[in-house]
Amino acid sequence: MTVSSVQALCLRETLAGNDDDLARRFFATVAGAIDDAWLVTRLFDQAMPHVGADRAQRALSRLARIAMAVGSRDALVSRRIARVAGLLDRPSALTSPAVVTRALGAGLGAGLDRMRPARDARPGGFDPLPPGPARGFHALAVSSVTREGTDRVLLEFAVPLRLTERFRFAAGQHVVIRGVVGGRTIRRSYSLYTAPGDGRVRIAVKRQPGGAFSGFAVDRLRVGTVLHVSEPTGGFGVPHAGGHHAAVAAGSGITPILSIAEDVLRADPAATFTLHYGSRDEPGIMLEHRVSALAARFPGRLRVTHHLSRAGRLPAATDDVAYRHGRLGPATVADVEADRWFLCGPEALSRAVADALTARGVPHDRLRVEFFDTRDPAPATGPADAAPARVTLTGYGDDLVFTMPGDRHVLPAAVREREDLPYSCLGGSCGTCLYTVEHGEVVMDPDPLLAISADDLAAGRVLACRTRPASAEVVLRFSPGPSAR
Ligand SMILES: Cc1cc2nc3c(=O)[nH]c(=O)nc-3n(C[C@H](O)[C@H](O)[C@H](O)COP(=O)(O)OP(=O)(O)OC[C@H]3O[C@@H](n4cnc5c(N)ncnc54)[C@H](O)[C@@H]3O)c2cc1C
Ligand code: FES
């Protein structure tokens, strides 16, 4: 999505008058509804000569307000209004029965929304429209919203035909959602929970108490809402391999594991999978129906044990799905043997299980770990008196050259200079920020569970979010791995 900043500025000046926010909202609605740089640019080009006249400006303002009201609820209606506003279509395009019906539905929904106490209406609530474009992100309308209880939601995105290739994914990959909270651009990662190949892009979000995006998603998201979503990224899954696989997942950590399990079982009729899955109680089991359906689809090959931490009645077991009371931990898998291990969920649990497996002699290359809670990544460990470094990040748009303290991680410092760089978790878990060291010296945190492979390390790559400069000049070239296209 690119509309030149000059155009945005012109539009702001021409349209806004006293209502400075109108231009932004109109611009954002149109840009959010049409994910096509050239079309949006053409729309603005055509709209601008007409907005000088008072009558045209008033008409445009009215259309903008309608587009704003329904645009966040129904992408089709919003797109139609935007095209009329941009003089690409005649106004009669809005009177077709299909558009009128959908607009009425969206308008009614928008009215109801206003009456409902809005949990994210407080200052600092999530705004799905980021301030500008970032490479690899696309405006996608939510095409399906399924709520699971009061704290989870399953979302599907409508991927336009021309983006199908870009949204092809490997099992275990995730997308990143970009928006604004309290004036600050934020990014949040969500794993795709289905197996690759069915052409559908689906995520499941679990509410974190007080969480900015998850609260918005669970309470507010509607079909038609447009979100800025990255192309799939990350290297948590592995290329197909037979043998026995085992996974330990807790809470929303089930999402990439489901994708990997389905992929592995589908690809190789001899492969088997053992899943230990921790939840609070039965109603709190995320994607339970999908887990059970998968076990039923691969009888004798996928064995699931649910671990429920809260006391209560245990559901009846089936041949392949068992329920136990108690918390997940290293002891849970003490007697499980597997060729490959996948651990996903809160960092403390995954680390404890990984340590126990390593102590048992499971080699590092058979163990994949992904942490979901990286909001407060470990601070850099460099000496406080380390000299400042001049860092150049290259290979992603224009070179970024900046000076930073030598005791800090590179990426958080770089993102303050340029927010559109590739990153997501900032905690070494998502694998998005792979760079090759081209010049100078750096030190990456010595953590064996970072999302970087031995091959990448051997090739001189680092995760910039967990790397600090160790010489006065450092040049890093962005070089995503094969899985993080
Ligand atoms: C690779 C990857 C894949 C993921 N996949 C999924 C998935 O499939 N499904 C899923 O639900 N999640 C997933 N996550 C987690 C997800 O990215 C978000 O971290 C999660 O949804 C919380 O985001 P949020 O904006 O709602 O919460 P945030 O606003 O980030 O807050 C998270 C928690 O921290 C607390 N908090 C926030 N700021 C502060 C502060 N300053 N001080 C103290 N506490 C604070 C909040 O109260 C909240 O409880 C994944 C994460 C990664 C890295
Ligand atoms: S941003 Fe996630 S690993 Fe660096």
Automatic annotation (TrEMBL):
Coiled coil: none annotated. The keyword Metal-binding applies. It comes from the Bacteria. Residues 135-239 form the FAD-binding FR-type domain. Keywords: 2Fe-2S, FAD, Flavoprotein, Iron, Iron-sulfur, Metal-binding, Oxidoreductase. This is 2Fe-2S iron-sulfur cluster-binding protein. PANTHER family: 1,2-PHENYLACETYL-COA EPOXIDASE, SUBUNIT E, NADH OXIDOREDUCTASE HCR. The lineage of its organism: Bacteria, Bacillati, Actinomycetota, Actinomycetes, Mycobacteriales. It comes from Nocardia thailandica. Its cofactor is FAD.
